Amino acid sequence: MDGTIKTIVAGKPFGFIAVEGQEKDVFFHQEACEAGAFETLKAGDKVTFDVEQAEKGPRAINVKLAA
Which of 34, 55, 63, 67 has the most crowded CB, counting CB atoms within 10 A? Predict the structure, then answer.
């Protein structure tokens, strides 16, 4: 999937990705990013990712900056 980083929660290892055409943002955790990539992400960055069903709902995995 393609999306845009909506927010990185300050001081926390997670954030949310906005996906065009979807009401709910997709949660992602620092561990879903390539090594060291989470620290460089900021609101507005375009990303690609996969989605898996977690206990609390869908979450992004394999999060990468879009080329």
Answer: 63
pLDDT of residue 67 exceeding 90, the answer is no
Across the chain, how many H-helices and E-strands are there? 0, 5
pLDDT in tens, 5-24: 999 999 999 999 999 999 99
* Domain tally, the chain: 1
In the chain, alpha helices (H): none
Residue 28 belongs to what domain range?
Answer: 2-65
Report the CATH number at residue 34. Answer: 2.40.50.140
Q: Distance between CA 8 and CA 33 in Å, rounded?
A: 13
* Tokens matching residue 65: 């900056």
Tokens 């620092």 sit on residue: 30
